Task: inverse folding
C-alpha cells in the first residue's frame, strides 16, 4: 500500500542544456569529518543524483530497444523527497518512479503500467547494484493497495505477475512507527537472500512459499471483511522474516512493543519502520505514547 504521508516529486521542464539540479540530499559540503560521517550513517552514500541519472539512462535504453524516437529537446530536472531515508519506506524507488513518470510525460512516451515496476527495479539492480524486489515498485506505480501474485510461470513468460488493485477502505485501522536513527540501506538487508534462494536453501524456499500463501490469505481476508485474520497474518509474516534473517535487536524491539500493547506488527520494509493493525483509538493512543518514549514517531498511513 502507498503511504501518502510522504512522497517523492520531480519537476522537469524544457531547458537549453540537460541539467539535473542537486537537492539537499546530495550535499557535498560539511562542517567537519564528524558531520560527514553522521550524514553517511543517516543517508548512505547515495543521494538522489545517481538515482535520477540512472533512470534517465535506463529510460533512453528502453526507448532505443523499442524503437521509440525521442524529440531532441533538453530539460532541467529537480527532485524533492519527504520520505524518511533508509527506514524501509522505498525512498529510492519513489524517486526513480517519479523521474520515470516525468520523462514519459515530457517525451510523450507510454510504457505499459504492468511493466513499469520492472524498469524501476532494473534501474536499481542493473545500474546501481541495489538489491530489492518488485513489491515496492508495483505499489508506487499503481498508487493504491495491491494484491501481488508473482506466479513463476507468468514472470518467466511475460515478465510480470498478477497485480490486483484493491480498495484501501477494506483495510483495518493501521499505524506506522519509525525511527530515522535506525536507518539501514535495504540492499544490506536483502543482500544474501537471493543467493540463498539460488543455492536451494530449503529454509528460504519454504519461507517464500509461506509468504505467498499469507499474501493470498490476506487478500481473501480483506475481501471478506475479516480484520482479525488479516491482523494475524501480519504477525505470521513477521515470524517468517525472523526465521530467515538476522534482525536488528532495535527493530525487533519495535515490533515487540506494538505487540505488547495488543497490536499486530511487521516490518513496513527493510527495517527502521514497522506497520500493524490496531483495534481502536484508545489502543492507538497507548501505542503512540509507548513509541514516543522509545524515540519513535507514530503515524496513521493516509
Result:
Amino acid at each position: 500500500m502507498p503511504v501518502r504521508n510522504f512522497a517523492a516529486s520531480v519537476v522537469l521542464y524544457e531547458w537549453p542544456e540537460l541539467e539535473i539540479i542537486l537537492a539537499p540530499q546530495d550535499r557535498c559540503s560539511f562542517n567537519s569529518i564528524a558531520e560527514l560521517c553522521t550524514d553517511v550513517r543517516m543517508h548512505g552514500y547515495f543521494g538522489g543524483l545517481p538515482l535520477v541519472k540512472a533512470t534517465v539512462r535506463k529510460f533512453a535504453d528502453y526507448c532505443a530497444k523499442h524503437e521509440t524516437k525521442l524529440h531532441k529537446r533538453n530539460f532541467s530536472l529537480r527532485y524533492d523527497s519527504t520520505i524518511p531515508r533508509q527506514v524501509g519506506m522505498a525512498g529510492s524507488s519513489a524517486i526513480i518512479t517519479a523521474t520515470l513518470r516525468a520523462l514519459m510525460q515530457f517525451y510523450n512516451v507510454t510504457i505499459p503500467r504492468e511493466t513499469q515496476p520492472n524498469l524501476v527495479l532494473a534501474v536499481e539492480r542493473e545500474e546501481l547494484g541495489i538489491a530489492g524486489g518488485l513489491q515496492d515498485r508495483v505499489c508506487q506505480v499503481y498508487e493504491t493497495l495491491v494484491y501481488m501474485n508473482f506466479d513463476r510461470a507468468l514472470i518467466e513468460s511475460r515478465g510480470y505477475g498478477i497485480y490486483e488493485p484493491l480498495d484501501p477502505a477494506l483495510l483495518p485501522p493501521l499505524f506506522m512507527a519509525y525511527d530515522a536513527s535506525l536507518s539501514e540501506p535495504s540492499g544490506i538487508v536483502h543482500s544474501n537472500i537471493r543467493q540463498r534462494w539460488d543455492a536451494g536453501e530449503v529454509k528460504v524456499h519454504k519461507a517464500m512459499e509461506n509468504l505467498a500463501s499469507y499474501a493470498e490469505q490476506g487478500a481473501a481476508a480483506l475481501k471478506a471483511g475479516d480484520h482479525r485474520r488479516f491482523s494475524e497474518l501480519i504477525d505470521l509474516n513477521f515470524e517468517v522474516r525472523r526465521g530467515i534473517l538476522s534482525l536488528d535487536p532495535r527493530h525487533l524491539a519495535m515490533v515487540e512493543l506494538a505487540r505488547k500493547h495488543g497490536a499486530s506488527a511487521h516490518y513496513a520494509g527493510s527495517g527502521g519502520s514497522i506497520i500493524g493493525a490496531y483495534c481502536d483509538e484508545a489502543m492507538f493512543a497507548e501505542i503512540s505514547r509507548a513509541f514516543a518514549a522509545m524515540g519513535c514517531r507514530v503515524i496513521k498511513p493516509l
In short: The chain has a mean pLDDT of 92. The longest strand covers residues 8-14. DSSP finds twelve helices and nine strands in the chain. Residues 202-223 form the longest helix (22 residues).
